[in-house]
Specification:
Elements lengths: L2 E6 L4 H6 L2 H8 L3 E6 L2 H8 L9 H18 L15 H15 L6 H13 L8 H10 L6 H4 L1 H17 L7 E4 L4 E4 L4 H10 L2
Parallel strand pairs: 1-2
Antiparallel strand pairs: 1-3, 3-4
Helix pairs in contact: 5-6, 5-9, 6-7
């Protein structure tokens, strides 16, 4: 079965705008998604990205217009200036890592739904995804034990660091970023999901 590694951060508006389309594409083509949360600040520092506060005003203004257009295109409500952005994405990222590990062991739950719930909490619901109660609510809503928010902390921190190293080594420089594992085909941005699907279709 084809594996697609999904490098992401739940604090990214474009991860929110990706919604669950990657999951739908993977299902149509018999592929498996593996969720790899990364520290975007660390990723930018390692790969030449510019953090949002340091970008030129022209780029900031364009970003807001593009977010507005893309949210309308996708039919997803989005707050351009959320009450809790920026915030620390690590607790939510650790929860995703713990949920992925639980799902790998057959413990149930929907990791894609969890990723979207956390991103939606920030970008559409004005909730702080660094807050324990928000992380627990999202875990529960996605079918996972909310206790993963605590039990997955140590392993989550270790995997979070490993994910960053793997991302840099494999050519990742932003999120959302998908890599088809067996042929190293890479796709950056929620607006490249159609290209990901076309690539999977071309493989037969």
């Amino acid at each position: 079965m084809t594996q697609i590694d999904y490098f992401l951060s739940p604090i990214s508006p474009n991860v929110y705008l990706a919604s669950t389309r990657a999951e739908e594409i993977a299902a149509r083509h018999g592929a498996t998604l593996v969720y790899r949360p990364v520290d975007v600040g660390g990723l930018f520092a390692r790969t030449g990205g510019t953090p949002l506060p340091e970008r030129h005003e022209n780029r900031k203004a364009y970003r807001l217009q593009e977010l507005r257009r893309q949210s309308a295109k996708r039919g997803l409500p989005l707050t351009l200036r959320p009450a809790h952005f920026p915030t620390n994405p690590a607790p939510a990222s650790y929860a995703i890592i713990a949920a992925q590990a639980a799902a790998d062991k057959g413990a149930g739950g929907d990791v894609g739904a969890l990723v979207h719930a956390l991103a939606r909490a920030c970008w559409a619901e004005d909730r702080d995804i660094a807050a324990d109660d928000v992380v627990r609510d999202c875990l529960s809503a996605a079918g996972f034990d909310p206790g993963l928010a605590d039990s997955g902390l140590l392993a989550g921190a270790e995997t979070y660091s490993t994910n960053l190293e793997d991302a840099v080594a494999r050519g990742v420089f932003g999120v959302p970023f998908w890599i088809v594992a067996d042929d190293d085909e890479r796709f950056w941005g929620q607006d490249r999901l159609d290209d990901l699907e076309a690539h999977l279709a071309s493989r037969g």
